[in-house]
Design brief:
The complex is a heterodimer of chains A (208) and B (83).
Chain A (H helix, E strand, L loop, with lengths): L14 H18 L4 H7 L7 H16 L2 H13 L10 H6 L5 H13 L1 E3 L10 H13 L12 H11 L4 H9 L6 H23 L1
Chain B lengths: L5 E3 L14 H12 L4 H14 L15 H14 L2
Helix pairs in contact in B: 2-3
Classes of the chains: A mainly alpha (208), B mainly alpha (83).
Keywords (chain A): Chaperone
Organism (chain A): Azospirillum oryzae
Protein name (chain A): Chaperone TorD involved in molybdoenzyme TorA maturation
């Protein structure tokens, strides 16, 4: 690109790539903590545009309209925090090995260091939490981890990260979330995540 | 206080950019369109997540012209990914 132009923003990332980043960002937000009333209201206005993913978005919108913040907060706690054991354990290491903090987490940390990503200072959860991984994908797509470098990580690097740290287990997690006895609102979040990851996997195959 | 789970390190590596406009890139774009990953479906998400953060960001512009639209998207995605 021409350096003669006064760039005050990052160069454009293609629209569909930004939409991917938005979905990852939304999943990260919903899996990090329960949505507040404002976010629920926004989600209630979503309208799918076809396909499994579109149907899942419609499901999420319906669930958001039927939910109140306090109930979703309680549901979130039961699903992910729960005293004496939560219903779901959204960590890659757990899904891949049956235990937390195993080799997959070490491998993730090595890749994060290589990509210029570190755990935020005020976070204590291991980095292989699904919300953190979704946040990383969003950042890799938009180049958020290297804004001064003008660039997003290419598809090859995105795919390598996805296959190694997300594709290998997160589909099962989202399917489990859909089937969780206590899940109501989060049943729809599971559907969105599962259908989105399926699209992602197909899209990476196309670009290979 | 930030709620991000991750942040960029100081030694962030140099990135290469995407495969925009190539045949494979177009096939990818078609797949996302068919799969329902559209601006219409998701346009509200970024704004909603942003607004819900309490940072009081403006709603996304309705315009579909080229140029600054993607700039807006970039900005919004940064905000979204800040969660």
């Amino acid at each position: 690109m021409s350096r003669a132009v006064d760039h005050t923003v990052s160069p454009a990332v293609a629209e569909e790539e930004l939409l991917r980043a938005q979905v990852y960002g939304l999943l990260a937000r919903l899996l990090a903590r329960a949505p507040d009333a404002a976010l629920l209201a926004t989600l209630g206005d979503l309208a799918g545009e076809g396909g499994d993913f579109g149907a899942a978005l419609d499901q999420l919108a319906g669930a958001a309209r039927d939910s109140d913040p306090a109930a979703v907060e309680e549901e979130f706690t039961t699903l992910f925090i729960g005293v004496g054991g939560s219903e779901r354990t959204p960590y890659g290491s757990f899904y891949l090995t049956g235990f937390l903090n195993e080799k997959p987490l070490a491998e993730l940390r090595a890749d994060m260091a290589r990509l210029g990503i570190a755990r935020a200072d005020d976070v204590s959860e291991p980095e292989d939490h699904i919300a953190a991984l979704c946040e990383m994908m969003a950042g890799l797509i938009t180049g958020a981890f290297a804004p001064e470098e003008d660039g997003a990580v290419g598809l090859d690097a995105q795919r390598a990260f996805f296959d190694r740290h997300i594709g290998s287990w997160a589909g099962r997690f989202f399917a489990d979330l859909e089937a969780s006895p206590s899940a109501r609102f989060y049943r729809a979040v599971g559907a969105v995540g599962r259908s989105f990851l399926a699209v992602e996997a197909r899209a990476f195959d196309l670009a290979a | 206080m930030t709620r991000n789970a991750v942040k960029a390190t100081d030694e962030a590596a140099k990135r290469n950019t995407d495969i925009q406009g190539s045949e494979k890139g177009l096939a990818r774009r078609d797949l996302f369109r068919v799969a329902g990953l559209g601006v219409g479906a998701l346009g509200a998400v970024a704004a909603g997540v942003t607004a819900a953060s309490g940072t009081a960001e403006a709603a996304p512009a309705e315009t579909t012209s080229t140029g600054y639209r993607e700039t807006d998207h970039v900005r919004k995605v940064y905000e979204v990914s800040r969660f």
